[in-house]
Amino acid sequence: MSLPEPPLVEPVGTALRIIDVTADRYPECLAVLRTGFGTEVSEFGITRENTPSNPAFWDPSAIPAVVAKGFGLFAVEGGGRILGCAFAGPSRSRPRIWSLRHLAVDPATRHSGHGAALVAEGVRRARAAGAEALAIGIVAENTRLAAWYRRLGFETIDKTQYPGLVFTVERMRLALSPG
Ligand SMILES: CC(C)(COP(=O)(O)OP(=O)(O)OC[C@H]1O[C@@H](n2cnc3c(N)ncnc32)[C@H](O)[C@@H]1OP(=O)(O)O)[C@@H](O)C(=O)NCCC(=O)NCCS
Questions:
Q1: One-letter-per-residue 3-state SS of 10-62
Q2: Which of 9, 74, 85, 109 is most buried, most CB within 10 Å of its CB?
Q3: How far is the CA of 113 from the centre of ligand 1 (A)?
Q4: pTM of the predicted model, to two decimals?
Q5: Does residue 7 belong to any structural domain of this protein?
Q6: Which residues of the chain have a pLDDT value below 50?
Q7: What would the pLDDT profile of 5-18 be if each residue is shown by its tens digit?
Q8: Residue range(s) defining the domain that contains residue 111
Q9: Which ligand 1 atom is at minimum distance from the Cα of 102?
Q10: Which atom of ligand 1 is nearest to the CA of 148?
Q11: Residue of minimum CA distance from atom 10 in ligand 1
Q12: Best mutation site among 148, 149, 172 for ligand 1, i.e. most ligand atoms within 8 A of its Cβ?
């Protein structure tokens, strides 16, 4: 699978589109993030106790907090419902690197390209801002997820076992051509 080339913001299906998420729809995104990451936590031994920062355990203050750090929240909408969402924005510590964070698709609507469409939108935004690369951090033990990102063009930078974390953090990066 490869990322669609520009234009990247376009309907991803007849009734599907990428939208900017406004604050009135944060609760809808929060529900998608909770159920979306819920499948991941149950598979990898992640709990509210050992990883309270995982979106599966977010409370309503979490989305505004990420947005306040300069990350844009966007979503795939279909039939008036948010089916998946993600955040993208500039890395604070690494110049010209953008991060894609907290990508989640409703388990009921997976395997239809919504995840890839959200990654493509993150790429579009990063490239438009002049970024050299789009970075992500994933649970390394989720080898299926890593393989998916690899198919989308990402490469592994490193894998780190942080003290206190029950999983390994894999940093991946997609080099961006100027857009
Ligand atoms: C990863 C995820 C966003 C993909 O969403 P999607 O809309 O199904 O993505 P696409 O349809 O574009 O691509 C599907 C591919 O994603 C991968 N994938 C799907 N579900 C997955 C899961 N639960 N875990 C890992 N990889 C998954 C598979 O390779 C799948 O291929 P397949 O349809 O041939 O089985 C979605 O599975 C999800 O929300 N997972 C839980 C949250 C998560 O891990 N987010 C990533 C954080 S960095």
A1: CCCECCEEEEECCHHHHHHHHHHHHHHHHHHHHHCCCCCCCCCCCHHHCCCCH
A2: 85
A3: 9
A4: 0.92
A5: no
A6: 6-13
A7: 544 444 444 579 99
A8: 16-175
A9: 47
A10: 29
A11: 113
A12: 148
